[in-house]
Amino acid sequence: VSGPRRAAVLSIGSELLLGDLTDTNATWISDRLRSRGVAVVHHLAVRDDVEEIVDALRWLAERSELVVVGGGLGPTSDDLTRDAIAAALGVELVFHEDLEEAIVARFAAMSRPMAPRNRRQAFAPEGAVTCPPVGTAPAFAVDLPASHGPVRVVALPGVPWELHRFWDAFVDPQLDELGVVGTTVTRVVHIGGRGESDIAGVVEPLVDDLPEVTLAFLAKQYGVQVRLSASGIDRADAMRRSQPAVDAVVAALGPAVSGLDGDDLEVTVVRLLAARGERVATGESATAGSIAARLGRVPGASEVLVGGLVAYRTEAKTSLAGIDADLVARHGAVSAATSEALARAARERSGADWGIGVTGVAGPGTVDGLPVGTAFWALAHPDGTCEVHERVLPGDRPAIVLRLGSAALDLLRRRLSGDAG
Ligand code: ATP
Ligand code: MG
């Protein structure tokens, strides 16, 4: 692997510094560069200000071999990326007739006349390599001298879909030209129901024996991702090099593994149900239908998700789910007994093989003296039995709803994959 090893991302736009906009471009660009084996060593965001952009460019150029600039290529007076890059190089902006024609054509394709101000976008710093627009803004690249040699600076529009298109059409070919060979893949093992340090204790010794693989942990709202990265001459090679680590982690963590790569918990549950030809229904209080909704996002859900009862207020547990009002009154709306009754009602009323039932206190207030985070999740099995689990879950209201749903889905996943635990 040769070519630039260290890259930086410079995001331009005052909105980014006012708290109005999250810099998702920097994250996306980093992922793409990492997949080419180029390390991103800095993210920097600056306001729409020529001096600040020039300062940032110089600072980053001293510390990297490639700078990807996103944003500030629009037609308005606060779009200053062209001016700033020209200033950093000490050159003028020059007009590109072919770019103007391409911009006019883009507008024509949208049945709109080109506003005079869009002519600004046909200018680029002298010496730049340009790329015609995919939206209305062209992209360009220059080499900026730094004390360690020339640094390639690639300027892309900030609109995410445009930036993504330019990546394939304009940036990737430059990486090839600069001598970047190879690809890094990151494999993801999703783990449910075990803590990060507990998982690290199992996984770190395994990966220590595999020097080709880099290990990282990412704690999610529910569960942990074990991320295993390996480089190779191409994707297939990198996949081959990462496979022993993936296999070792899956073998060591067994039933705690809830999915691989793009297969998260919901995808895994849908796949396992489909493989068995079985179906599930939900009876949801605290999660208000979100467990069913999470399954419904997965392609193929219609094969395995029968439906769900959203029995939110106490009276709905009787009016919608048909649960004996005395049972709810005796045990409480948030209780093991009510969760079990919801799971059974969901299963029996829908004819599903499995029924999920949940109750809990999502907060911010307590319910019947139970603390915020109190959660009961039940699973009605195809054989007519039902199991109930309980825990006080951490976090605020959205986190508790998410965790409770994940706990219930993970319980179903474990039972479907033969973990009797
Ligand atoms: P264009 O030339 O296509 O008009 P631009 O280069 O002028 O784009 P901006 O005006 O800076 O880009 O941003 C346009 C829109 O793109 C923003 O309103 C925002 O929605 C989105 N955007 C810009 N920068 C980012 C970023 N770093 N992360 C996520 N979204 C962004
Ligand atoms: Mg802008």
Helix share, percent: 25-40%
Shape: elongated
What structural class results from the helix and strand content?
Answer: alpha/beta
The CA-CA distance between the termini, in Å, is 46 Å
Kindly estimate the percentage of residues that lie in beta strands according to DSSP.
Answer: 15-25%
Runs in which pLDDT lies below 50 for 5 or more consecutive residues are: none
Rg value: 27 Å
Overview of this structure, please?
This protein has 421 residues and is of the alpha/beta class. The chain is 40% helix and 25% strand. It has helices at residues 14-17, 24-35, 50-61, 81-89, 97-109, 160-177, 196-208, 235-253, 265-276, 290-296, 314-319, 325-331, 336-350, 397-416; strands at residues 6-12, 39-46, 66-70, 93-95, 123-125, 129-131, 139-146, 149-156, 183-191, 214-219, 224-232, 257-260, 280-284, 305-310, 354-360, 374-380, 386-392. Strands 2-1-3-8-7-6 form a six-stranded mixed β-sheet, sandwiched between helices. A five-stranded mixed β-sheet has the order 14-13-15-16-17. The protein has a four-stranded antiparallel β-sheet with strand order 10-11-9-12. Helix 3 crosses helix 4 and helix 9 runs parallel beside helix 14. The radius of gyration is 27 Å and the shape is elongated. 44% of the residues are buried. The mean pLDDT is 94. Magnesium ion binds next to loops. Magnesium ion (MG) is lined by residues 13, 48, 71-72, 74, 79, 158.
